[in-house]
Amino acid sequence: MQPLIELNNGVKIPQLGLGVWKSTIEDASHAVQAALHNGYVLIDTAKQYGNEKGVGDGIQAAMKNDGLKRSDIFLTTKIFNGDQGDYDHVRHAFEEQLKNLQTDHVDLLLEHWPVDGKYNETWKAMEAILKDGQARAIGVSNFNNERLTDLMDHGTVVPAVNQIEFNPHIHQPEIVKFDRDHGIKVEAWSPLGSGTLLKNPVVNQIADAHHKSAAQVELRWGLQHGMIEIAKTIHEQRMIQNMDIFDFQLTDDEMKQIDALDQEKHSLWYHDFQWNGNPDGIGDYVATPNHW
């Protein structure tokens, strides 16, 4: 029942999905099973999260228990910063990711962060992965306009998606406009602001008016801004609640009230990582599920 958004290569992606950041392998497996059982299609993971094997196990269990086919699932993962740069290394590392995910392809492959001096060579490998059918679409994550322009100047495929931090507290309007002007769909990570907005009086007043929760209002706000949204939870009831947002609509005035909560403060940005400005190092950015 949820809406689909068509990417620039014709592939269609569900507008709301489950994220598994900070989930252990076991939790990710259970969360993916529960999500797919309750009507989710889009599952978003990354090598950096350290739980791709759990996601693969969850998908296999859901296919066995609920009769789903691989084509019923839209799977996203990301190229790890520590694997970026060398073409052959990117290809080999991604093959290992596919093994952990227990699939021969992903539906969307993203470059997790733009590692300076390496992201263009990484993109060449991702273009080959796309051509070989190991990914149905490729895109980027956390790219600002300068780095995205540079990537497009050196590449041949325009990214299908830019996954960025987007919620009522951070809108990144310049990046959103640039992406949309170039036919790149914007996908929101942390659409609930890591829970910081759940007690906000404006959000809760609007939620009460619609007999919905604060989380449902925040997700609905993102949908009405045209975002693809990745909501993270390991709790089945919250998954069900997060998906129950297609039966109401926020008014223009309510949208403006939530828009006014913008603070434009990143929870993570380039200065948080040692690899920024250091092409030969990746700092302490490592593949552990609770690193961030």
Features:
eight-stranded parallel barrel; alpha/beta; 14% strand; AKR; 292 residues; oxidoreductase; TIM Barrel; two-stranded antiparallel ribbon
What does this structure look like?
InterPro entries: AKR, Aldo/ket_reductase_CS, NAD(P)_OxRdtase_dom_sf, NADP_OxRdtase_dom. This is 2,5-didehydrogluconate reductase. The active site is at residue 49. Substrate binds at residue 112. It is a single chain. An 8-stranded parallel beta barrel has the order 3-4-5-6-7-8-9-10, surrounded by 6 helices. A two-stranded antiparallel sheet has the order 1-2. By secondary structure, the protein is an alpha/beta fold. Helices cover 38% and strands 14% of the residues. Helix 2 (52-66) links the parallel strand 4 and strand 5 (74-79). The protein has a domain at 13-195 and 225-235: NADP-dependent oxidoreductase domain (TIM Barrel). The longest helix has 15 residues, at 52-66.
- CATH C-level class of the domain at 13-195 and 225-235 is Alpha Beta
Structural class: alpha/beta
Tally of individual helices: 10
User: Looking at CATH, which topology of the domain at 13-195 and 225-235 would you report?
Assistant: TIM Barrel
List low-confidence stretches.
278-292
Rg over CA atoms: 18 Å
Distance between the termini: 33 Å
Q: Beta fraction of the residues?
A: 5-15%
The biggest sheet amounts to: 8 strands, parallel, barrel
Order of helices and strands: EEEHEHEHEHEHEHEHHEHH
- Measured as a percent range, the helix fraction is 25-40%
Strand arrangement across the biggest beta sheet = 3-4-5-6-7-8-9-10
Q: How many extended strands?
A: 10
* Shape summary: globular
The CATH homologous superfamily name of the domain at 13-195 and 225-235 equals NADP-dependent oxidoreductase domain
What is the CATH-assigned architecture of the domain at 13-195 and 225-235?
Answer: Alpha-Beta Barrel
Q: Quick check: average pLDDT? A: 93
